Amino acid sequence: MDTARRNIAILATGQALGLAANSTVFTIGSLAALQLAENKAHATLPMTCWVLGNAVAALPVSWTMKRLGRPAGFALGAFIGILGVTLGVVALYVGSLLYLGAGMLLFGIYAAGAQHYRYAAAESAAEADRSQAISLVLAGGVVGGLVGPEVSKWTVDLFSVRFVGGYVAAIVYLALAGLIAWGLRVPPPPDDERRQPGRPLSVVMAQPAFVVAVAGSAIGYGVMNVLMMATPLVMSGCGHSFGSTAFVMQWHIVGMFAPSFVTGGLIRRFGAPPVMLAGVVGQSACIAVALAGVDVAHFWFALVLLGVGWNFLYVGGTALLTEAYAPAERAKSQAVNELIIAATLTLSSSTSGWLVARNGWPGPNYAAVPLVLAAGLAIAWLMARRRRVAAAGSELPA
Predict the structure, then answer these.
(1) Which listed residue, of 120, 277, 285, 302, carries a Cα 20 to 30 Å from 363's Cα?
(2) Is the full-model pTM beyond 0.85?
(3) What is the pLDDT of residues 190-246, one digit of tens each?
(4) Residue 397 domain-assigned (yes or no)
């Protein structure tokens, strides 16, 4: 097995383990917070702490990866994630929403590092194969999406305190992810790349491709986050069982990552913007289904569509982003992208519980409509611009 394939296999496995941990912590964290919060509008506070940790770590993680390299960076992130999940166990035993939030803050820092699996995949592949490499690594999330919620159902009452078993399983996932990261063979950036700053960040960010890549990824992630976080709360309020909620979340995560087996090929054939536009269509369909009813089938179909839409926007946005920066501009460009996504997640998670408490399930869905529309318009604008540039033979940046 050559180095590139070895790296892709390790990164895909790390993605699977990370998603198994993430899906478990998300499902359990929302329901545990619902039990611990006196004011149910505060039930998404731990999830908000997760995205806050993600936002705070976005810039430091990029620079840490650049300094220490991908293997050490991923291993360090897994260790921080283990600390966060362990604090979550303590929170369950003492009944503290504050401790649960602190644990999720640390877990968010881990998640910020795990976002770089896709960047490491792009760096491991030839330029023509980057979108395919990104897709294959994200496809590892299918396994995590199946394993995490399923194991959480088996372990939910394994210990005297409910949900602790799921957190213990998450610790195992993270420990394995940290260990296998040391097998990566991603070459460090050349010395001249480390020394050269490249173009000013303002110039990189002013490119249409950069703007649309970041906007599409951030909006797609924000819409997914606000609806995904609201789902366990709403399903519980509708009287659906924990098993039904875990089932819906399981298939949501499958919807997020299963398309990755074909997304890279679609991007290679049609380009990133058309695939991103298909993601907008997917998330629009999700909102329509979600507003049609509150049976388990409605939640299931809506969350699968939500995941597929996210995949096309996220993978397409990542592939489009790699077109906008040179190697010397990689770290700062990735850092800005992750920071904007994390800020969007912070806003979406902090408002999700409030929207549900105020307007029920329709609240977060109606809030998502203008965001999805804005993403669609931005992508359509870039596609039209590129057609004009190609027709005119212009040298304007695409």
Answers:
(1) 277
(2) no
(3) 555 556 668 898 999 999 999 999 999 999 999 999 999 899 889 988 999 878 887
(4) no
DSSP category for residue 52: H
d(CA 313, CA 275): 7
pLDDT in tens, 81-106: 999 999 999 999 998 888 999 999 99
- Closest-CA residue to 12 (of 128, 140, 135, 134): 140
- As a whole number of angstroms, the distance between CA 80 and CA 306 comes to 29
For 6-25, the pLDDT digits (tens) are 999 999 999 999 988 988 88
Name the DSSP class of 328.
G
The length of the chain in residues reads 398
Taking the C-alpha atoms of residue 396 and residue 279, their distance in angstroms, rounded to an integer, is 27
Please, which residues have CB within 8 angstroms of residue 201's CB and are 6 or more apart in sequence?
329, 332, 333, 336
DSSP 190-250: PHHHHH---S-HHHHHTSHHHHHHHHHHHHHHHHHHHHHHHHHHHHHHTT--HHHHHHHHH
Number of domains, the chain? 1
The beta-strand segments (E) located in the chain are: none
Provide the residue range defining the domain that includes 159.
3-392
144-173 residues labelled b (16+ CB within 10 A) or e (exposed): bbbbbbbbbbebbeebeebbbbbbbbbbeb
Q: Is 291 part of a structural domain of the chain? A: yes
Distance of CA 318 to the CA centre of its chain: 12
- Separation of alpha carbons 8 and 264, rounded Å: 14
- The DSSP-derived string for 10-21 is HHHHHHHHHHHH
Query: Torsions phi, psi of 4, nearest 5?
Result: -60, -45
Closest of 274, 290, 313 to residue 360, by C-alpha: 290
Does residue 398 sit within a domain? no
* Backbone φ, ψ for residue 207 (5° rounding): -70, 135
Short-list 135, 104, 108, CA closest to 122: 135
Helix (H) or strand (E) holding 341: helix 330-359
CATH of the domain at 22: 1.20.1250.20
Asked if residue 349 belongs to a domain, the reply is yes
